[in-house]
Amino acid sequence: MKKSLGANTIALPLPVWVIGSYDAAGKPNAMTASWAGVCCSQPPCVYFAVRPARYTHDCVVARQAFTVNIPGVGQAAAADYFGCTSGRTVDKFAAAGLTTHRGGYVDAPCIAEFPLVLECKVLKALELGTHVMFIGEILDVSCEEVLLGVDGRPEVSRLQPFVYSTADGSYYAVAGALGRAYTLGKHLAG
Amino acid sequence: MKKSLGANTIALPLPVWVIGSYDAAGKPNAMTASWAGVCCSQPPCVYFAVRPARYTHDCVVARQAFTVNIPGVGQAAAADYFGCTSGRTVDKFAAAGLTTHRGGYVDAPCIAEFPLVLECKVLKALELGTHVMFIGEILDVSCEEVLLGVDGRPEVSRLQPFVYSTADGSYYAVAGALGRAYTLGKHLAG
Fold first, then answer.
1. Residue A25: partners with Cβ closer than 8 Å, 6 or more residues away
2. Which fold has domain B14-189?
């Protein structure tokens, strides 16, 4: 028996991605987004949604570029911190003990210590209500070499990603392979 | 040291949500989407992206509504199966041993056996390339009562959600609480 919980954003699991951008003075800025995901295969696109009052909004509008920095569980505290404060007033990277370098493909900063980084140029901005969606074309994905498997792709067990649940406002580790897509449920096709 | 993996959709972790819709004859249809997520807080919105050739595309265009049915690990095989075949040719629900009922808020089917269901009306459709994004306003969220905690919200440990990784095309369980948002990294604010 189901119970109605009303009209809200209780939806899970969601990614925890740190959006990198430069401000007008060229200072690197970061914010954590769970309103984020993949939205097209070709061109490869991701989006994140942000309130227009946030510092990142103006940075991304000005440079038309952002990075998606994907943390492992070892960076969970830093990722949470990036969502707690505004880059207007503090140098978030210094506080978190992290460093950045300019992307090789777009005018946005990559977090050196985060294992997986996507460099994106803005394709569209879409106003929805409280949030603006920035849809970006992924120009490059880069990953720490030590986390790559023999097939040259990132290994989830080494990357140790985590997710966010709006149901309880908490982060959870991703662990325990369940099976491969297009295989796990194939027997149901009869 | 990072290695470039090129321009692609290696991004994780991603949700595994089953999109429910009715076809022209009123037959319930389902497809599994990982190009999906939350995109606005107010009005509460989610999106999913789909290739225009998919059966779900035409169903959602016609009815301007869809459901997001969120599976637990116990429904992982069914969720994978929904991504393997087309509702044009088979009754996916019969094959998966699942049942549906019409949503109370929108003209789309809810999967009875899935623990968490969002009912959405289409606000926008956005063509991006291979995929069309459907952005839907969430009119209601409903959850199995036995999965709710004392605070009346879904408990992740009972819901047992899982994610998809494009890096290896595999599903992974979500487990192990890491901490609460706005708390885990607060100490870094000094």
1. none
2. Pnp Oxidase; Chain A (2.30.110)
